Amino acid sequence: MTAAELAPAVARLGRTLRERGIPVQLGDEIDATRALARLGSPDREEARWALRIALKVRHADWARLDAILEGWTEPARTADPVRPAPAGMIDGKRPLRAAAAMRSSTGEAGEGDAEPAEGDAPGYSPAALLRHKPFEECTPADLAAMERVLVRLAARLAARRSRRLVPTSGRGTPDLRRSFRRTIATGGELVSLARRARAIETPRLVFLCDTSGSMDAHARFLLAFVLAVPRAARSTEVFVFNTELTRLTERPAPGAIGPTLDRLASAVPDWSGGTRIGDSLARFVAEHLPSRVDARTVVVVLSDGLDRGDPGTLAGAMRAIQARARKVIWLNPLLGDPRYAPEARGMAAALPFVDEFLPAHDLVSLERLVPHLQA
Question: pLDDT tens-digit profile of 24-72?
């Protein structure tokens, strides 16, 4: 769908916001229309963020904007032949649903592209459905559809700006001291301003991924995300463990995460076999902790905590990791079930030395993980 086709819905949205006391200018509506037309994914959450930013909605008004958009993301009723279509409708579709259909009409490729739903069906795209689909229900075809989403998600790690200013050739704050220093080479004439911008701050990460049999339904999808992270955050180390610990050095090329996982499954000893979390993490502490982890490093353990070994060994390894790392995050796919309680002896032994205990059972949980990796 083109910007011209989206414009009427965005204009009606702007009018609705002004009626609710949220100031929106014409220029903001134009920016919002262009943002929706150029949206890189037919995803409802991304469309919401695009509208917040392009319409320059204040943080205090986000809740009211979201309430309006929630009403617009419900299935559209069939248009009455006499009465005009409700505000925000485009050809019988809600605006965010229309944005989801945009890529099929413009010919852009994307994750899980398919023909948009017609009639009164809810406006969910295939990519949006995958976001909430539990990993244990996903198929190899779903992994291929998710790969671009996972890569883009991992790339968010390289989007955080630090407070430190560094020289830049683009936009930024004028650096008068360096600008005047340049005039020495031009005979005292100020030809151009030197500028500084906030540096991109990429985190230092260490992933420890459980590939035992109990994690088999989740491991491939979690590793697809983990293997995409080093492209954005180069200071990233990835280890997998089951009964042994293996350091992964391979960095898959774009579009090759699936084949890379197949090679790893055949090369890593005892993949989808038993698990000794405590022994594996103790080996990591003995062989890699001093060189791979420092006070700036975030250590992420991906495991269900079902350990066959000595809980004391696991507790000792976790204690050593927490003492050296900036933060320890434990991702447990079982945490996505509201009935789950961390009562397994391995999980119970590790939990006192975990700073953040988070779920990792679908794409949405991984999206929520990214800010925790940056903090």
Answer: 888 888 888 888 887 755 577 788 888 888 888 888 888 888 888 876 5
Task: Classify domain 204-374 at the CATH class level.
Answer: alpha beta
Q: How many CA atoms lie within 13 A of 243 on its CB side?
A: 7
What gap in Å lies between CA 360 and CA 10, rounded to an integer? 35
Could you give the percent of the chain with pLDDT greater than 70?
76
Within 10 angstroms of residue 256's Cβ, the number of other Cβ atoms is: 14
Rounded (5°) CA angle 295-163-235: 40
- Tell me how far apart the alpha carbons of residues 95 and 276 are, in angstroms, rounded to a whole number: 51
Rounded to whole angstroms, the Cα distance separating 302 from 277 reads 11
Distance CA 108, CA 124 (A): 18
Task: Tell me the backbone φ, ψ of residue 339, rounded to 5 degrees.
Answer: -85, -10
pLDDT digits (tens, 9 = 90+) for 64-95: 888 888 765 433 333 333 333 444 444 444 44
The CA distance from 214 to 273, in Å, is: 8
**Which of left, alpha, beta for 77 (phi over 0: left; psi -120 to 50: alpha)?**
beta
Q: Domain extents for the chain?
A: 3-107+123-131, 161-200, 204-374
First to last CA, the chain: 37
